[in-house]
Amino acid sequence: KHPSITRSRVSNFVNDNYQWKDVNIQAVLYDVKASGEPHVQLKVWSAPGQERPTFEHAVKQEFRPAKVGQMFGPSWTTHWFQVHVSIPAQFFGKPVQFLFDSSSEAMVWSAEGEPIMGLTGGNGGERHVDYALTACATANEPERMFYVEIACNGLFGNGDYHEHPQDRDIYYRLNSAELAAPNPDAWALYHDMEVIVDMAKELPQDSPRSWQALTAANDIVNIFEHADPTSINKARSVSDAFFAVTSNPASHQVYAIGNCHIDTAWLWPFAETRRKTARSWSTQLNLMDSFEEYRFTASQAQQFEWLKEDYPSLFK
Question: Which residue in 49, 70, 239, 295 has its CB near the most CB atoms, within 10 A?
Answer without folding.
Answer: 239
